[in-house]
Each structure stands twice: as C-alpha cells, then as structure tokens.
Design goal:
The protein is an alpha/beta fold. It folds into 2 domains: about 5-250 and about 455-475, Aldehyde Dehydrogenase, Chain A, domain 1 (3-Layer(aba) Sandwich); about 255-435, Aldehyde Dehydrogenase, Chain A, domain 2 (3-Layer(aba) Sandwich), CATH 3.40.309.10. The protein contains 16 helices and 22 strands. The protein has helices spanning about 40-55, 60-80, 80-90, 95-120, 155-170, 185-195, 210-220, 230-245, 265-280, 300-310, 330-345, 380, 395-405, 420-430, 460-465, 485-490; strands at about 5, 10, 20-25, 30-35, 125, 135-140, 145-150, 170-175, 200-205, 225-230, 245-250, 255-260, 290-295, 350, 370, 390-395, 410, 410-415, 435, 450-455, 455, 470-480. The longest helix has 28 residues, at about 95-120. It is globular. It binds nicotinamide-adenine-dinucleotide (NAD). Nicotinamide-adenine-dinucleotide binds near residues 152, 158 and 411.
Length: about 500
Amino acid sequence: MEPKLFIDGAWVDAAQGGTLDVINPATERPFAAIAAGSATDIDRAVAAAKRAGKGPWGRTTGRERAALLRAIAAGIEAEKDRLARLEVEDNGKPLAEAEGDIADTIYCFNLYATYAEELDARQGEPIAVPDARFSTRVKYVPAGVAGLIVPWNYPLLMAAWKVAPAIAAGCTLVLKPSEYTPLSALELARICHEAGVPPGVVNVVTGLGRDAGAPLAAHPDVSKLAFTGSVPTGIAVATAAAQDVKSLSLELGGKSPIVVFADADLDQVVEWVMFGIFWNQGQVCSATSRLIAERSIAPRLVERLAEEARKIVIGDGMTEGVQLGPLVSRAQYDKVLGYMEVGKREATLVTGGGRPAGFNAGYFVEPTIFTDVPADARIWKEEIFGPILSVAAFDSENHALDLANTTEFGLAAAVMTKDIERAERVADRFEAGVVWINCSQPNFLEPPWGGMKKSGVGRELGTWGLMNFLEPKQITAYQSSEPWGWYLKNTQNG
Ligand code: NAD
C-alpha cells in the first residue's frame, strides 16, 4: 500500500510529503508506511467533503444510501480474511478476535442500511401540538461535514461505528485513524469508493493526532465531531469544538467495576471476569478492570482467576491458539509495565507483573492480577488499558456500590449474582452508561453505547448513533383561515 491520503475520491500525497512507519507490535518491525497528514491536508479533505455535501449527495434518499451501505458491507465481506490479518499486523490482537471485529463491522454497515431506509419513512413525521390551527412536522437533515477521530484498539470497527451512521444520515466525512493502526481505514476508503460512494463523501487523512487530528477538530467547516479516545484528548477535542459550537460526541475511557456476590455461579464468574479484563489484551474502554468481590469468596475467586491467568497462551496474534497478543505500541507497553511496578508498591501481586519469559521482541506483557487493592491506589483509580485486574473485597451491597461508583469514569459496570432482585437494584444504582447482569462485555450494535461522567458525552450505536449525524428540523405551518389576531388586536384594533 502506497503512503497516500484518500481525498475527493483520489489517492494523494501529503502536502508536506512526510511519512510515518507502521510497526507490527509482535515483532517491533515496521511493515508499512503512511502519509503524515497535516493541517493543509485536512483543509483539502474538509473542502472536498463540503463540496460533495452540496452536490447530488445532499439530495440522496435514505434508500439510496442504504444500497451503498450494503455494497460497502459486501465489499468488506469479500476481503474479510485479508482485513482481519491486517488488523493483527497493525494492532497485535489474536486473529480470531480480529475476525470477530470484521464480522461486527459488516453487521454495522448492514444495520445502518436498515436505519437509513427507516429514516425515509420518518421524514416529515407529524408532532401533535395543542393548537389545531397549526400543523407541525419534523424533518431530519444531515449534520454537514463530520470529523471522525478514532483510536487503535478496534481500528476498523471503531471507524465503522462512525462512518456507517454518518453515511446513513447523508453526511460527508473526514476520518482520522490512529497513527498506530491506520491501514484498515485506508482499505475502508478504497472499499467505499469501489462500492460507488461519490468522491468527497468519504475522505481519510492519516497522521499524528497533533498534526492531523487537532486541525480536524478545530476546522470551522466541520459541523459535527465524533471522537473516541482518551479523556485528555477528548477534553482537547471538546475545547476545539466549543470555539465553533460544533455538535460533539465523545466516547472516552473507563475503569469499569464488576461486582461479584457470594451466591454467583463461580465457574460463570471466572469466565466473565477473565473475558472482561484479558480480551483484546485488556485494551478495551469498557474492560471490567476492577473486581469487587464479596469478602467470603474473594480469596477462592482470586485463586481460581490466577490459575486461569497462568494458562493464557501469549504470542503473536497470527499464531493459532494464541489468546493474548502484544500491546499495540512501545508507548502502551512502557505505560502498562509502569503500572505493574506501581501496583507492586500499592497492593499484593497475585500473578504476572512483567514481561513473559522467552520473548525477545514484541510488546508482550503477562496477564496480571493484584489483590487487596486500596481504593486510593493509582491502579484502582486510573485507566491502565492493559491486562491488569485489580481486586478489592466488599462487606455489604452499599459498600460494593460505593466502591463501584467512586470513580471519575462511568462507561460500564457489571454485577454477578443469582438474586435477580438484587441484580436489578444494583444495576439501577450503578453510575454507568452500560450495565451487564451476569456477564461482562457482550456488545450488540442496536442499543445505545456510551458513558457518564468523564467517560463521554452522547451515545453511539443504534438509532442514537444515527441521530448524532442528523439535525432535526421543526416545520410549523399555520393552517387556519382565521386571522391570527395578535398584530391586529394590539396595533390597529387594540
Ligand atoms: P488517544 O486519545 O491517544 O487518541 C485517539 C485519537 O485521537 C487518535 O486518532 C489520535 O491520533 C487522535 N489525537 C491525538 N491527539 C489529538 C488532538 N490533540 N486532537 C485531535 N485528535 C487527537 O487514544 P488512544 O490511545 O488511541 O485510545 C485509547 C483510549 O480510547 C482509551 O482511553 C480508551 O478507553 C478509549 N476508547 C474509548 C471507547 C469508548 O467507546 N468509550 C472505545 C475505544 C477506546
């Protein structure tokens, strides 16, 4: 793949001509290069998107856009094996997980095709108002040029969560993928083009966050920003958006709790806790990285989890049977190893705690569990975004909820118990946008996704994700033959 940007339906060099290496995290070796986009490239891409929005694209029906979305889904389907391998090379995750991401991506485009069709039926829907002399309707118009900025943990899928609803809504867009995992976004641009998406509707500008992401967030012709990433970058993006009062959705970090009561099925608990923290190397925004276990079962549960963690097969994501690949980058590797050292000072290390033996290259770390973690420990409070589980014990339901909710984040929370009334009670009291009962992490694309507190603003997925890219327009008509009266009454007859 040439190091090019995709702007206005064509592959172009970055204005400043630079490139950035793309590193395979399992080998630490560069295997591709991308164009280093800058503010000039963002200007070109936004201008192309603005032009395209004012052309025939702006008059397409939902049904027409649905056909394109289905063609994109079919294009991804036709290349799904290659795309999955590309995600592994870029991100490091095990191939089976990457295959799951691609399947979800295909589902996402097909789902938004259905929503695009349903949108046609909702155009002009009447709204009852308490005055029969008026009729009121709502039309949904595209929000304009959308700036989409995504992270590296699910490269293609995170892009799809934004690109699919943006197209469904009739927006045009500029996508800025993470500099660590940019390749599948470029493939998506090509697939969109081959599917018949008109030039300028989908543009992809690769590059560093500060060089390409920041100018996109600050661009005055971008009317809608959809960002997924860390809290500090989210704050920078929101600050930039505020200057032009742009519409904004933020999907940010988390430090999600899983509360386990003594009556829960221990085998099920082990399964979901392991999945909740070690899936995707723990690089999951909603990872249940804080286990809050009822004191009577905490030691036995921790023992079982440690036994399982030691069995996890670590290696290159392309190797059959591997369950834990490398972390995405040197920076992430250094950060996670740093937290392991912090944890050794703050709490009791149960298993893991460093680099696994026998690896000469690659950003590999051990699945790690700390127990007796105090509530003021950094490993309890801060998002690590790696395979580190922190465990604390609780004595009562209120104590568990206090531990669960005392956090600046509010993305997800899970509870495990056989007592369904208690599960519902705890679910209601969790301060989180996503709650799981007797499971952790299953994610469907129809319900809303997003967080409270510092975990974000707004919701993605489902029809909530579509509304992010639409402006509802109220149209109110006076339909009575009687004079309205206020002007005449007050000025002439009054
Ligand atoms: P990040 O904030 O470092 O980067 C995200 C994106 O923003 C990248 O494309 C980056 O290049 C760009 N960027 C960096 N600086 C920028 C700036 N000043 N202006 C505009 N764009 C800029 O995050 P990351 O390390 O790529 O991803 C990990 C984070 O993402 C974690 O905190 C994780 O919880 C979060 N995340 C959240 C969700 C969710 O749905 N809530 C999903 C996935 C990841």
